[in-house]
Design goal:
This protein has 478 residues and is of the alpha/beta class. It is 36% helix and 17% strand. Strand 2 (54-60), helix 2 and strand 3 (80-84) form a beta-alpha-beta unit. Bound molecules: nickel (II) ion.
Length: 478
Amino acid sequence: MIEKPLASRPLPVDVAPSADTPRLVDTHCHLEDARFDADRDEVIKRAQASCPGVGHMITVGTDIASSEAALRIAHAYPFIYAAVGVHPHEAKGFDENVFKRLLALAENEKTVAIGETGLDYHYMHSPREAQVHAFRMQVEIARQTGLPVIVHSREADDETLEILGQSGRVKGVLHCFSGDAEMAGAAMAMGFYISIAGPVTFRKAEAIRRVAAEVPDDYLLIETDAPYLAPGPLRGQRNEPAYLAETARAIAAIRGISPEDLARITSLNASRLFGIGEVPGAGRFTYRIRDSLYLNLTNRCTNSCSFCVRFYSDFVKGHKLRLTREPDAGELISEIGEPGAYKEIVFCGYGEPLMRLDVVKEVAAWVKAGGGKVRINTNGHGSLINGRNILPELKGLVDGLSISLDAQDEKTYAGLCKPVFPGAFAALLDFIRESVKYVPEVRVTVVRTDGVDVEACRSLALSLGVKDFRVRELDAVG
Ligand code: NI
């Protein structure tokens, strides 16, 4: 796949993010702000033309007048949505009439969230009691309407969490997150998303960068908060949604993925939370992460690992992987197209690729003939599954194997991975021992989790002749 810069192509007006050219969602900007009065339409067009482009935007009201203005903009552009709410700075005027008006605006078809609301004890532009009252009332509107709430919290983390915690089933996002890992963890435990904005690029923002690195894929959103908080080199200027690409590149680098990966992951989350954009319907046979192409052959696996992504999500890095049918070799080959265009072609996916050894061999032979590099990510049950030592058959077809060891002994393995085969752990050790004879690069991995003795696993792998041992953190798939 050749990446074309989006900026060089004219863009249609309403582009839904497609799985192949993922686009960003600016989940928080203030397009109704007076600073955009002179050139609002150009600002919006620049956002669409940036790279990665911004597919959808949520423009966020801060009082009744700006919420109404946000809705007018949302109605003028099919790809822009509105949030309606009263910012903590404006909380002092929040009364019964404001509550009723917000409730009415929440019913508008372009309203996708309540906010921004929350608590700001840094500036104290409104008294504390007024802020708490306005916040509680807006959380109540979110509860009644089923809309997510966009939360602003500054120097008020404990009280923010307390109010959200008392709200029952309200979902939402902590916008322009500036708290610590503990705050992020507590919010995610309540099902809240963490949205990272331009300050992640600031020189002294180590704490935000740590959160941006550690928030699991399933909880991450991004935003500009334009016209405020322009990122990095643009700091101090008027911010605009086009600069989201700058923040996206920074966060992608922190997480060790491509900006396109980040766009796919965060746009999926925006779809889940706000109901905008498209959630992919069918599971993918091939999917790209960083510079590699991954092949997804099956949902089936001979383990049921307690930490496996299959048991809590249909998605990996924003790609839908749960298949409704298994691809044949011809389909995989035609989707790969040009094997040399990728760093590696990786048999991986949702289930265990060596459940389909014949397909693996046929596709691997074709990839090798086309100048590509082949790796298989496996649970090491391939010989058990196929009833023979399959490693001699992989010689010359496979450059690398990543084998999940995942435990230091049989008992731990049985508890953690629940293999369908009795004696699976001993067979796995045999598979590893045999693999180094036939495959040039063999890597053994463990997932760091309760009960796993990482150092014992490392010595075990080394004793089997493996030189490359890696620890995978829970939730870091792909
Ligand atoms: Ni804002």
